[in-house]
Automatic annotation (TrEMBL):
It catalyses: 2 GTP = 3',3'-c-di-GMP + 2 diphosphate. This is diguanylate cyclase. InterPro entries: Diguanylate_Cyclase, GGDEF_dom, Nucleotide_cyclase, Rev_trsase/Diguanyl_cyclase. Residues 250-382 form the GGDEF domain. Its EC number is 2.7.7.65. Keywords: Membrane, Transmembrane, Transmembrane helix. The chain crosses the membrane at residues 6-25, 37-53, 59-78, 90-110, 116-137, 149-172, 184-209. It is an enzyme of class 2 (transferase).
């Protein structure tokens, strides 16, 4: 029994170390950390009870210890579910834990049968480990590195297989020979692999927590805190990358968007109203953003929308739909209700474009849209026509003034 005790004691120490690590992460906003913490706490409690077999009452070392160990598996699965934003099937899991308790009582006090106790516990562990592997693969966030999730799932399936083999091994033993086989090479090997289940999975869980925390920091750095759009720096970085990849077969279009008379909105409804309008616009514009597109806040009330693999005609149609949607939107809040409109300038990338030149051409189109009456869309193709109309509008008052003077 010394070998089995040594394995259980060593594993308890590993679980205690992981418990301390998870304790340092309890204040983090990442979901699932508390459940993983309680999973390791359950292991720290159950393993010494199993190691003290014959030194303490059987009810504690067999029934209580196995129930608490089963709770460890249930809590670990719950941590994975919460981390991935999935509901936790507490009723089914606690029903499984209760069945383990009943099995331990029956096969210790009604029919003393060690192999069946091992089969019961390993069956539960096999199911839990398999469920952990499945949820990690099926619900893995697509915007995260797959390494941690694949590694954790692989380990979970490996442990599930080990537990199943150990259960099948004990099914071949008669009750009177099972005690003598506890220190066999087969049982020690399988027990050693099974014993490191929780510390190993917890180590991977800590890796996933750190990955999630880094993702939150990266998101905060790359996104405007008020609207959720990309920051100017990140938008410009994406512009450079997309310009480098642009080609005739995959044209790149930039929409520069300005909220009309935004100062008037701030003056009328206060900065809280202005902020709400900005958030409402980004939320509405997000419905137009396709995979691969990029929406960024370039400063104040000006936004940019990059449309890779989009023709000028398709971009113009999208811009017009966006303009019409903004014109019809009513933003409400404690400040009251507010309507707003937008002006949009469109430019299509040229192969020799630098980011500054690309942006300048879209800015020129935006300037024309604003100076021709706002709440409209202008593109490079429409600039000569718009500029001619603007010149004619400016000449009419001048001619009227000259005619009056001559009269």
């Amino acid at each position: 029994m010394l070998t089995v005790v040594s394995i259980l004691t060593t594993t308890a120490l590993f679980s205690l170390a992981m418990l301390l690590v998870l304790g340092s992460l309890l204040r983090s906003p990442v979901a699932g950390v508390r459940e993983w913490f309680f999973a390791n706490l359950a292991m720290v409690v159950s393993l010494p009870l199993l190691a003290l077999r014959t030194a303490i009452p059987d009810f504690i070392s067999i029934v209580v210890a196995n129930v608490v160990m089963s709770l460890a598996g249930a809590f670990y699965y719950a941590g994975c579910a919460r981390f991935l934003g999935r509901p936790v099937p507490w009723v089914r899991m606690l029903a499984g834990v209760a069945l383990i308790g009943i099995a331990m009582i029956v096969w210790r006090y009604v029919d003393a049968n060690l192999p069946m106790r091992v089969v019961a516990s390993t069956t539960f562990n096999t199911i839990v480990c398999t469920a952990i592997g499945v949820i990690l693969l099926r619900r893995r966030p697509r915007d995260r590195s797959p390494y941690n999730f694949w590694f954790a799932a692989l380990m979970a399936f490996l442990f599930a297989g080990t537990q199943m083999v150990r259960g099948l091994y004990f099914m071949t033993l008669a009750p009177d020979e099972s005690l003598a086989m506890l220190n066999s090479v087969w049982n020690i090997s399988l027990l050693t692999v099974g014993a490191v289940v929780m510390p190993t999975l917890t180590m991977i869980a800590v890796m996933m927590v750190h990955d999630a925390m880094l993702a939150k920091v990266e998101h905060a750095l790359n996104h405007d805190h008020l609207t959720g759009a990309l920051t100017r720096k990140r938008f410009e970085s994406i512009t450079r990358d997309l310009l480098a990849a642009a080609q005739p077969a995959r044209p790149l279009v930039l929409l520069l968007i300005d909220l009309d008379h935004f100062k008037r909105i701030n003056d009328t409804h206060g900065h809280a109203g202005g902020d709400e309008v900005l958030r409402a616009f980004v939320q509405m514009a997000g419905d137009f953003v396709r995979p691969g597109d990029a929406l960024g806040r370039l400063g104040g009330e000006e936004f940019g929308l990059l449309l890779p693999a989009t023709t000028a005609a398709d971009a113009a149609a999208m811009a017009e739909s966006l303009r019409a949607q903004a014109e019809g939107q009513v933003v409400s809040g404690e400040f009251g209700s507010c309507r707003y409109s937008i002006s949009i300038g469109i430019a299509t990338a040229h192969w020799e474009d630098s980011p500054d030149r690309f942006n300048a051409r879209a800015d020129r189109a935006l300037y024309a849209a604003k100076n021709s009456g706002r709440n409209r869309v202008a593109s490079e193709e429409t600039l000569p026509k718009l500029e001619t109309e603007m010149e004619m509008e400016m000449e009419l008052p001048a001619k009227a003034g000259r005619n009056s003077a001559q009269a």
